[in-house]
Amino acid sequence: MENLRKGFPVLEQYTYLNTAASGLLPESVWEFRQNHDLDFLLGGSVFKEKQADILTETRELVGEFFNCVPSQVALVPNFSYGFNTLLEGLDKPQKALLLKNDYPSLNWAMESRNFEISYAEIDQNLEKNIAEAFENQQPDFFAFSIVQYINGIKIDLDFIKKLKQKYPETLFFADGTQFCGTEEFNFEESGLDVLICSTYKWLNAGYGNAFMLFKKEVEGKIAPKALGFGSLQGKYKAHQGNFIEKFEPGHQDTLNYGSLAEALKLMKKIGIGEISSTIESLSVTAKSEFKKMNLLEESVIKRKTHSSIFNIKGGEKLFQYLKSKNIIISQRGEGIRVSFHYFNTEKELDFLIKELKKFGV
Which of 30, 59, 219, 311 could form an S-S bond across to 335 if both were Cys, CB 3.0 to 4.6 Å? Predict the structure, then answer.
C-alpha cells in the first residue's frame, strides 16, 4: 500500500481525502512538465517539431486506457469546452433528459440553450427514475454524470448499456470526470455515444487537459462548427475539416496534454485492477462505518454499489475542525464531502473516524 503513495508529497503533510475536488500532481508528471518547458526554452521552434508526437502518444494512451480507437479521441482543455462544442453541433430544438441537480457545468450548458428539457431524480431509485423518464419523454439525447459530485451516487453502467439497446436512436452523453481513473472502463462496449472527462481529479493529470471519446456513429448526428488553421493534423487527423479536428481548433497545449500522457503511464504501471480494488475496498469500509455513525443520506445507504465519494452530515464547525487536523475535505451540498483514491489507506479512514468521534459526531 505504501508503494502506491510514493511520488505524492502532499500525503506527507495532510490526510488528503479530497480527490473529488482536485487530484494530486504526481512527481513523475511534475518532472515531465519541467523537462517539457526546458526543451522549449532551449529549442524554440525545434521543440515545436515534436508537438505532433506528444499529442499522438497522448491520444493513443487515452484510447488504450479506455478502449477507444485513437482516431475517435479528441483532446480538449476541459469538460465545459468539450461539452459546449458538442452541444453547438446539435440541431435545436431537441428533447433532452438531464438528472436534477447534476453537475452545474453539465446542466447549465444545457439549460442555457433552446432544448426541451425534462429531469430524472437522483435518489436510491435512480435507474428506475431514468427508465420512466425515457418512457414518458422519449428524449433525443440524455446527458448525465456517471458519478454524482455531491454524494457519490454512481449510475449503473450495465443499465445504461441496456437502455441504449432499447433506445438506439437516443444519444447518450456522459461526464466521466468523477469516474474515469477509478475502475476499468471499456468505452467501445459501453452504451455511451460520447464520454467527456476533465482529468485533474482521479487521473491526477493536473489542470488544462481533458478528453472526449466518440462512437463512430455520432459523426453523422453532430456537426461541430469550430475550426482553426493552427490545429496540427497529426497521425489521426488525416484531412482538413475531419470530425475530431473540429473539437481541437488551434494549437494544442503539449505541456498539459503531455501531462495527461505521463499520468496515464503511471496508472498503467500500477494497474487499473490494483487501483480499482483498493478504491472499492476503502469505499465499502467507509460506507459501513459512516452508516453506523448515521452520517449518510438514505439514498446512498439504500444503493447496492457506490463510488468512493461520500457526503457526510456536518456543518461549518466540523469542517473547520477537520481542517485543523490537516484532514483535507470539501463542503458540498448540505454536508461535508470526503473521497478516497488509491493512494489513501484504511489508516487514514480510521483517523478520520477517530476525529469525527472526538468532535462528537
Answer: 311
Domain count along the chain: 2
22 found inside a domain: no
Q: Which run of H or of E encompasses 313?
A: strand 309-313
Joined grid coordinates for residue 1: 500500500
* Domain presence at residue 128: yes
d(CA 349, CA 361) in angstroms, rounded, equals 15
Per-residue pLDDT of 198-218, as tens digits, reads: 999 999 999 999 999 999 999
Residue 211's φ and ψ, nearest 5 degrees, are -145, 160
Residue 24 lies inside a defined structural domain of this protein: no
Could you read off the pLDDT of 209-260 as tens digits, one per residue?
A: 999 999 999 998 999 988 877 555 567 765 566 889 899 988 899 999 999 9
Q: Is 160 buried (19+), middle (13-18) or exposed (0-12) by CB count in 10 A?
A: buried
Do 161 and 37 lie in one domain? The reply is yes
Amino acid at 102: D
Q: Please tell me whether residues 72 and 193 are part of one structural domain.
A: yes
Sign of CA dihedral 95, 98, 101, 102: negative
pLDDT at 300 > cutoff 60: yes
Residue 174: CATH number of its domain: 3.40.640.10
Q: H or E segment at 199?
A: none
